[in-house]
Design a protein that fits this description.
This protein is an alpha/beta fold. It is 40% helix and 18% strand. Helix 10 links the parallel strand 8 and strand 9. The two termini are 36 Å apart.
């Protein structure tokens, strides 16, 4: 039976559209998927429920974007999870968070709100899987630690764990004098050039500049000026008391979120006495969501489902 919560959902300007469409594969007969879209708390949302739904819900937290994604961009992100919706029969829910920039606080609020909305209005009766990528991994880890009675597990995909380290890294890259030096510094810190998903070094510099300014705006200052604000939304400081199955997958050549952040987080979780609920899967030479890193996803998702459904924990982490 689905877990209950006392959270009250305030729905603002909800315009729900139902769009049935068909996705077919050679291995399975066609599955009809109903799509529902609208606005909740000022954020666009998307919900997909397949005809072979077995009551399980996948809630996905998006990554950083300087601007709020459009509904069309949200749909494109949702398409990446078609195999979970069609093959595994999961319902899917996603939010734009209602804003762009470094919006971990808003992401937590809107994702939690959307989760409750789907559970209360669409009859979720199975487990609730919480996935997040990049900044969304940070959001998922924070939500999983805060609401262990609502979410059954967390999959953190190369998510940031330390907002202070993120800011300092991006500021350092921003202040390099030219692209040749920037490229060398990326290599010195264990990344590859150009760092995926940036097409060029110049693109990566622009990303870093935007991330620095957005982070200062979100937290009301720099880490020196507002250290508690940065720590409040950093899993390594705020979310090590893990009570539900939690897995991180992270590439060792990630220049956007260094792999060391996940190792540091794992050590902090272990120090907090919750190593039984956490696993870190290393993708050697993987970058920030590139094909090398994503190649490990089927195995990791299989481990997570088996952990949640059957209580079988994956092998211990070996970073």
């Amino acid at each position: 039976m689905r877990k209950t919560s006392t959270f009250s959902v305030l729905v603002l300007a909800v315009a729900v559209l139902t769009v049935p469409f068909v996705v077919s594969t050679q291995a399975l007969p066609p599955v009809t998927v109903n799509e529902y879209t609208g606005k909740l708390g000022g954020a666009y949302y998307l919900i997909r429920i397949p005809s072979n739904w077995a009551g399980e819900l996948l809630v996905f937290c998006r990554g950083y974007s300087h601007l709020e994604p459009t509904p069309a961009e949200l749909a494109s992100m949702a398409n990446l999870w078609n195999s979970m919706v069609v093959v595994r029969g999961f319902a899917l829910a996603m939010s734009t968070f209602g804003t762009g920039g470094t919006c971990i606080k808003e992401g937590m609020i809107r994702t939690h709100q959307l989760t409750e909305y789907v559970i209360n209005n669409y009859g979720v009766y199975g487990h609730v899987y919480l996935f997040g990528a990049s900044m969304g991994g940070n959001i998922a880890l924070n939500l999983g630690a805060k609401y262990p009675d609502l979410y059954d597990c967390v999959l953190d995909m190369f998510g940031s764990k330390n907002a202070i380290a993120q800011y300092n890294d991006k500021l350092f890259y921003t202040n390099t004098p030219n692209d040749v030096v920037l490229a060398q510094e990326i290599l010195n810190r264990g990344g590859l050039v150009p760092p995926f998903p940036s097409a060029t070094i110049a693109d990566f510099r622009i990303f870093c500049q935007n991330a620095v300014s957005d982070t200062v705006l979100a937290y009301g200052g720099t880490p020196t000026e507002k250290p508690q604000a940065y720590e409040r939304y950093s899993p390594i400081f705020s979310s090590t008391d893990i009570e539900i199955p939690t897995i991180t997958i992270h590439g060792t050549k990630d220049a956007y979120v260094p792999y060391s952040q996940s190792v540091d987080f794992m050590n902090a979780v272990n120090d907090a006495g919750h190593s039984d609920m956490y696993r870190l899967f290393k993708m050697t030479n993987g970058q920030h969501g590139n094909s090398v890193t994503l190649a490990g996803m089927p195995l990791v998702i299989g481990y997570l489902i088996n952990w949640v459904e059957n209580g079988v924990a994956p092998p211990p982490s070996n970073p």
